[in-house]
Specification:
This protein is α/β, with parallel strands linked by helices. The chain has a single domain, classed as Rossmann fold (3-Layer(aba) Sandwich), CATH 3.40.50. It has nine helices and ten strands. Bound molecules: adenosine-5'-triphosphate and magnesium ion. Magnesium ion binds next to α1. Magnesium ion (MG) binds next to α1.
Length: 256
């Protein structure tokens, strides 16, 4: 059985900067995968390459057994993506947008409409039926983007910071939804800085730092890989793996 995500030496440079540096990742199907790293580590760049939003510089990536470049269309059909910068058609209303996305994936009109209605209701966006997306709040846009990523029943879902900007009610709803997706066999590839959520939800974790993979495994495997971290929380493991001791102390000279 092929992996949901498999990369070999995946690399992306921007001029002099190597944002993603020879990344070897393996994510088994059905996994709830947490992809962690400090700001600027290369998470979003990796995710953009894996979803066809950005070209790689070198290396290989296979998604659900398909070569990312050769079978680009097949890959797109089978994945759902909520990218870091949401790319919604803001002059549409929520239902119009979901209908457009569903039809683009080749769903029948009746199925598209039924699914759009169910999604809007679940995400509590049906109360804002008359609003254009441009007038949505940040959290509403996020929920609509997630709805659009689910309408075609993807096998693999890429979520870049899905909880960022969501209130506690919406965050709980999304966590519950993710749980039911995992139970139905969907693979989730998630980035988040909220380590308590990752610790609770994710079965497998990878941590990158300055473009390089510094750890990959279950939480228990990460703990056993670092001496003296037997009872550590994910936050403690994260800080020890990304050289937090090198970080500057939170002090500004003029604030005393
Ligand atoms: N289009 C671009 N042009 C130049 N540099 C870029 C570009 N996109 C990303 N970078 C750089 O690549 C590095 C990795 O950025 P990336 O967005 O992947 O980080 P990230 O891990 O997602 O961080 P965050 O947690 O802040 O979202 C950063 O140094 C960033 O400045
Ligand atoms: Mg990012």
């Amino acid at each position: 059985m092929s992996y949901a995500v498999e990369t070999t030496n995946l690399t992306r440079t921007f001029g002099e900067l190597t944002a993603v540096d020879a990344l070897d990742l393996k994510v088994a199907r059905g996994t709830f995968f947490g992809f962690l790293g400090p700001n600027g580590a290369g998470k979003s760049t990796t995710m953009k390459m894996l979803t066809g939003l950005l070209d790689k510089t070198s290396g290989e990536a296979r998604i659900l057994g398909h070569d990312l470049e050769r079978d680009a269309l097949e890959v797109k059909r089978r994945i759902g993506v909520v990218p870091e910068e949401l790319a919604l058609y803001e002059r549409l209303k929520g239902r119009e947008y979901l209908t457009f996305v569903g039809r683009m994936y080749g769903l029948a009109r009746a199925d598209t409409e039924a699914r759009a209605g169910e999604l809007l209701e679940l995400m509590e966006l049906d109360r804002s039926e008359d609003k254009l997306i441009v007038d949505y709040s940040h959290g509403m846009k996020k929920k609509l983007a997630l709805s659009a990523a689910l309408i075609h029943k993807p096998e693999l879902l890429f979520l870049d910071e899905p909880f960022e900007g969501l209130d506690a009610i919406a965050a709980r709803l999304i966590k519950d939804l993710m749980g039911s997706l995992i139970r139905s066999g969907v693979t989730i590839f998630l980035t988040s800085h909220i380590l308590e959520i990752v610790e609770k939800l994710c079965s497998d974790i990878a941590i990158i730092h300055r473009g390089r993979l510094v750890a990959q495994g279950t939480l228990a495997e990460l703990r056993s890989g670092i001496p003296g971290q037997a009872g550590a929380t994910l936050e403690q493991l994260f800080l020890s793996l990304v050289d937090a001791e090198e970080a500057p102390a939170g002090h500004l000279s003029w604030l005393g």
